[in-house]
Amino acid sequence: MIKKLQNVFSTLIIHSEANDIRLENYDWFITADDTVFGINKKELTKKDRTLLATFLKPYHPNLPLQTKEENKWINEINGVQQEERLQINQPFRFVYFSIKKNQMDPSSFREAINELFAKDVPILWENEHEGILIEVTEDSTDTISYEHIINLLMSDLYVNIIFYVGPFRPDLTDVKQYFHSIKKSAKLITTLTKKSVVTYIEAIPYLLMNEMKPDFRAQIAHSVLQEFLDDEETLKMIATFFECHLNISETAKKLYMHRNSLQYRLERFYDKTTIDIRQFDQAMTVYLALLAKD
Predict the structure, then answer these.
(1) In terms of domains, do 7 and 36 share one?
(2) Is residue 175 a part of any domain in this protein?
(3) Residues 6+ apart with CB under 8 A from 285
(4) Which of 138, 229, 253, 267 could serve as 225's disulfide partner, Cβ 3.0–4.6 Å?
(5) Is there a single domain that holds both residue 116 and residue 169?
(6) Average pLDDT of the chain?
């Protein structure tokens, strides 16, 4: 097949022989027998790319070759019939990750993740700095901490990384919808929060806010926050109170504030708005108003 394609595309080159060319100037493909080749982008028309995509897989030359297990996941997600189907008898979840560009190459990331999990973890790459890793576990209540992973990568390799952790699924039902939902949600969540690890549960308020019309979000922010809408100091205090799970002592310590001073400011917010954010249901309303404002 390669020889036939070379008769059509004069710039075709096998990846292993591409020593003196700029890889980014080529579109790369991989055959069923794992032969990687590229064709200069200038030689390819839109029609050519569409045709090649019908019987070849696109390939990123700087990404590791997909494992047999990863290929099974990709085929399962895309609904491709395969002789040896993916078998999953344990809970699994998709975890989106994004590495700051040029901080860590994909092969090193794969090696680090496999070492931290003490087993090979399937990784479906979106590009050289983001993708989905697939966590399969016997017990969904006893899992690795992604905060711990970040701390290790930061301390050992100085890598900045973000994780968006999806919910566990018991089987492959609606796996395609689940996969694309995680990707779509992750792209949104990473623009709305500065947290390095966000779980699906934590993301739900953000996702709900995103579904609201801008005018309605503004109305919520104004009606709840009232005269504190532009009071950045008070809003920071409230946000920290939520981060500390409504714990006054912990909040005061984090803000370098005396506990009594914090109590006074919370009372002042109550006097002005009649909202007591020390009560969970009222705190949730204010939390949503902060998200609406942002």
Answers:
(1) yes
(2) yes
(3) 224, 275
(4) 229
(5) yes
(6) 87
- Residue 131 and residue 124: Cα distance in Å, rounded? 6
Residue 111 corresponds to which tokens in the numbers above? 């090696």
Q: Do residue 174 and residue 94 come from a single domain? A: yes
Residue 17 has pLDDT above 80, yes or no: no
Q: Are 73 and 134 part of one and the same domain?
A: yes
**How many degrees, rounded to 5, is the angle at CA 160 between CA 200 and CA 165?**
15
User: Residue 289 burial (CB < 10 Å; 0-12/13-18/19+)?
Assistant: buried
Which band of pLDDT confidence, cut at 50, 70 and 90, is reported for residue 184? very high
Question: What is residue 21's predicted lDDT score, i.e. its pLDDT?
Answer: 65
The CA-CA-CA angle for residues 202, 169, 126, to 5°, reads 75
Q: Are 30 and 57 in contact (CB under 8 A)?
A: yes
| Of 17, 27, 99, nearest in space to 59 by CA | 27
Total count of domains within the chain: 3
Residue 60, pLDDT above cutoff 90: no
pLDDT confidence bin for 268, thresholds 50/70/90: very high
Number of Cβ within 10 Å of residue 100's Cβ equals 11
Higher pLDDT, 17 or 69: 69
The three-state secondary structure class of 11 is coil
> Can you give the residue range of the structural domain that contains 288?
212-293
The whole-model pTM stands at 0.73
pLDDT digits (tens, 9 = 90+) for 63-95: 787 888 888 898 888 887 777 778 888 899 999
Domain boundary pick from 25, 58, 91: 58
Q: For position 230, which CATH number holds? A: 1.10.10.2840
**Contact of 88 with 171, CB cutoff 8 Å:** yes
Report the C-alpha gap between 230 and 136 in whole angstroms: 45
Tally the residues of the chain: 294
Domain-embedded: residue 63: no
Closest CA to 146 of 117, 120, 122, 118: 117
What's the confidence (pLDDT) of residue 155? Answer: 76
